[in-house]
Amino acid sequence: MSTSSSTYSAPLSSITAGGFIKLIGLLLIALGILGMMVAAFGGEAASPVSTGLTGIAAVTAGGLMYIWQVRRQKSVAEQNNGAWQNDMTTRGASAWVTGVVLTGFYILLYWFPTTLHGLVLAVEPLSQWLRNRPADHWFLYGTFYTLAILVMGVHALLKYRNSNYHIIRTISVMFFQLGFAFLLPALLLALNQPEFYFSYFWPLKYDYLFPGTVSYLIDNGAALGVFMVFWGAVLSFIATPILTYYFGKRWYCSWVCGCGGLAETAGDPYRHLSDKSKKAWQWEVAIIYPILGFIIITTLVLWINSWSEGRLLGNLSSGFSSTYGFFIGAMFSGVVGVGFYPIMGNRVWCRFGCPMAAYLGLLQKHFSRFRITTNGGQCISCGNCSTYCEMGIDVRHYAQQGEPIIRASCVGCGICAHVCPRGVLKLENGPRENRFAATPLIKRSDVGILN
Amino acid sequence: MQASLHLVIIGNGIAGVTLAQHVREKSDCRITLVSSESATHLSRPALMYVYMGHMRYKDILPYPDWYWTKHNLTQLHDLVTEVNFEKRQLILQNHDPLSYDVLVLATGSCPAFYNWPGQDLEGVQGLVTLQDLQSMEGNTKGIKEAVVVGGGLIGIEMAEMLRSRGIGVTMLVRDQLYWQNTLPQQEAKLISKYIKEHGIELLFQEELASINPDAQDRVASITTKSGKLLPCQFVGIATGVKPSINFLRNSALETDKGILVNEYFETNLPNVYAIGDCSQFQKPAPLAPAVEQLWYTARKHGEALAQTLTSERTVYNRGPWFNSAKFLDVEYQTYGYVPASWNEEYESLYWEHTSGHKAIRFLYEQKSGLLAGINLLGIRYRHDLCHHWLQQHYTIHNVMQELPAVNFDPEFFQRYEQELYRQYAQKFPEQATPARKSNWWDLRNRFSLFSTSESC
After folding, report:
1. Which residue of A42, A206, B35, B267 has the smallest Cβ count within 10 Å?
2. Residue in A82, A85, A383 nearest the CB of B60
3. Closest to A78 (Cβ–Cβ): which among B56, B164, B322?
């Protein structure tokens, strides 16, 4: 939370009402963390619920108080003051500590979940209440994840409170995480239905269209299961191209997706850390499309195998799941994707690893009405757009030549347009005719970044 | 330009770099950019964001290192101490003399100081160059109070920078309102109020009399012409800029405020040109200043001279004026001609949002209705369309027909066309309210407001 305090103002220097609220907020955070640590490592010396669950509640409440006060004191003109001067947001000591703690948590979660037993017990009442069944480490993770999006969502709402686009977009990711990725799956379990995430689709949830999952859903979910399979297929193959045609990739990546939701909220203070170099772009292209290709081929092969009743490949499905799940699902999306937020920026997974982003990106680049328009010859080449692009796009390269920005990787978060000190950029959907055409008000010279 | 020739450009700002890029597109000649300020081109308007921590120095460099190598543009980081026009040679501080065939002077501006007592004290500075940014970093370390002299664009930039570090700022403004020599009364009032709301003290109708030292010869306070004594540890001088041409003063080159040029940027000497802030038009175009000191005009100078150097001698035509700025969080755009005040030949349509943070002004000729210019605060308009309106001599009535297409604000932002139409209907009750909802994409196609030409 220290990311929101400026280097130059001592947060607790004067005992004003605001300072008092911040102080109480910090106290609650500290006590909450203490409580959670007792729950995690205290060997059940105290009740995990009274320490852990209360601790989680205290961190949430304290975080909200602190954020509310700090952001409200800051004028909207100060949104990015000190971003490159604060220890926490410039890969300083506190950033490394945060990164290691986050990464460590993912390692425990994926490979040593029993170590989280105390914390799992702490959220037991919540799990019983929501899902009518015992908590497990994935429920604990879902709870943390959702709280991170909600609390830091409030931070983003206050930080970007002068932009309706960001207010609506932030509310959207908070809504989809809480409703579609947390409460609805819990409700399904409470009703003894298959757990299903209506906001994740193939190829991100690659196994949703694997024969194994499909038959499981149809067998266990009856009519609802059939609907889930139908929903997944329609969203992947019909809704995705149509929505991306009209709105670009953003309808999903920065409005609906949970990974994007976390990046846009908890990850927002780290967006400037993304690598803007040509090298990074080459890596991006070299990794993300092969991952998409791998999933497409695997899905096809699995179906052929299934139709041929296993004669072709035998029991390949489980082998695939464990291998891909380990390297891509766990290593990439969790450990590197979120754990390295404070070091590599907030969209590492979305940029280098996500097959859904690759699929949406191809559609956005070639079959979409979306673009970011550059306003005539008004760019002053300052570099704020490129600096704050979480996807590492060198936005300025296009803007200073008066060209629209149409890039496969752009998630349409709209921050480039927001940080531009001359209001030069606008996200918009328009006719595909002359979509790549530039302004006539500036003479351009080609630089050719990637060839 | 023949490939055997050597084009030397003094200055690597936007004017010099634009020129180099566009000459390179058409010619294989040798091109060298000499600058004492920085090893490579930087975005001058972005210097403030480095101080405020939005970006690092390397983030304000518009082109990566490989760009210059790829296009064979040589950058020489050195100070030109003297130009020998007869021998066609530059005398450099740290390198051997450099010969040129064609010389372009794009040396930019430096802060204008007006011989105030104490102006050389430590802690007194302007803000134009990278060196200014570096000294501001040192000069403001740990201080509490600062005074900024001058109510213009650099003044508000310095004030915003200082505020970002919790330093108290007082601005001395000569006029009755902030930037009143450029902004009409209502816009100047709006911005003045906004600046004050953000904790910056504005002292109107005050000028600097003297800067007073402490025992270590650092600035301790300033005295205003009315006799006010303001304690401060930093004085930002933002009373305008002047062409940076001191090293050329006693040469064969004709200069006045700047280097005198004609409409082709030709100086009095053969094969010597001057562009950007350092040049001064002998015969400026009507309504245009003799010295143009903007990022945008510097870029246009570079584009125009490149045309002359690589194909045919081309008259510089600035086209409809435009500029933009940002006052803390209020963006400002201006298109065409909107002076600080006007006579009865002009009329204006002015709308201001109740929040006091947004305003739109259309200035037009009273008799003909011909659009003169547009001022915008906190609202974005499309440059391409505004340019088209001005170039095609739209009347205010024509403009109203296309008004909905011009807005460039982000999606989901409130729109204010209806308020403008209401004002318009009051002024012109005989005119029918525009019926058709015009759409930017239709207009863009109809008027061909785009360029599909392959960049070369």
Report:
1. A42
2. A383
3. B164
Q: Using an 8 Å Cβ cutoff, are A9 and B166 in contact?
A: yes
B322-446: CATH number: 3.30.390
pLDDT at A318 over 70: no
Share of chain A above pLDDT 70, in %: 91
Q: Out of A8, A384, A427, whose CB is closest to B54?
A: A384
Element of type H or E holding A428 = strand A425-429
| DSSP per-residue string spanning B323-342 | EEEEETTEEEEEEE---S--
Which chain A residues are closer than 8 Å to B54 by Cβ?
A: 80-81, 83-84, 384, 387, 419
Residues of B whose CB is below 8 A from A404: none
Q: Strand ranges (DSSP E) for B353-399?
A: 359-365, 371-377
Indicate yes or no: CB of B45 within 8 angstroms of CB of A85: no
Q: How far is A234 from chain B (nearest CA, A)?
A: 28
**Count of C-beta atoms within a 10 Å radius of residue A307:** 11
Q: Residue B142's closest chain A neighbor by CA?
A: A8
Pairwise CB contact (< 8 Å): B53 & A446: no
Please judge whether A376 and B49 are an interchain contact, meaning their C-beta atoms are less than 8 angstroms apart: no
Please give the Cα distance from A172 to A132 (Å, whole number): 27
A387 vs B444: CB contact, 8 Å cut-off? no
Angle at A365 between CA A361 and CA A369, to 5 degrees: 110
Answer whether CATH 3.40.50.150 is correct for domain B124-239: no
Report yes or no: B120 and B171 within 8 Å, Cβ to Cβ: no
Report the gap between the CA of B441 and the closest CA in chain A (Å): 7
Min Cα separation A443/chain B (Å): 7
Question: What is the helix (H) or strand (E) element at residue A304, kind and residue range?
Answer: helix A278-307
* Distance (Å) from the alpha carbon of B227 to chain A's nearest alpha carbon: 33
Looking at residue A331, what is its pLDDT?
Answer: 73
Angstrom distance (rounded) from CA B183 to CA B109: 23
Q: What is the CATH number of domain B6-110+242-310?
A: 3.50.50.60
Contact partners, residue A14, CB within 8 Å, separation at least 6: none
Taking contacts as CB-CB distances below 8 angstroms, the residues of chain A near B198 are 75, 77
What are the residue ranges of CATH 3.30.390 in chain B? 322-446
Tell me how many residue pairs between chain A and chain B have CB atoms under 8 A apart. Answer: 175
Is residue A312 over pLDDT 90? no
- Cross-chain residue pair A83–B413, CB shorter than 8 Å: no
> Got the DSSP string for A135-174?
--HHHHHHHHHHHHHHHHHHHHHHHTTT-HHHHHHHHHHH
Tokens of A99: 């990164």
- Record the tokens describing residue A76, joined without a space: 């909207």
Of A383, A418, A423, the CB nearest to B46: A383
Q: Which of A73, A79, A84, A167 to mutate to probe the B interface, most B CBs <10 Å?
A: A84
Q: Where in chain B do CATH 3.50.50.60 domains reside?
A: 6-110+242-310, 124-239
Query: pTM value?
Result: 0.94
Show residues of chain B in contact with A378, CB under 8 Å: 296, 322, 324, 333, 383
Stretch A405-414: mean pLDDT, rounded? 97
Q: In angstroms, rounded to a whole number, what is the distance separating the alpha carbons of residues A439 and A448?
A: 18
Q: Please report, for residues A83, B132, B141, B201, B213, the alpha-carbon distance to residue A8 in angstroms, rounded to integers and kept in the order given.
A: 12, 21, 11, 20, 27
ipTM of the complex: 0.95
Interval A437-448: pLDDT, tens: 999 999 876 544
User: Which stretch of A108-112, A183-187, A263-267, B257-261 has the lowest confidence by average pLDDT?
Assistant: A108-112
Query: What are the pLDDT digits (tens) for B385-394?
Result: 999 999 999 9
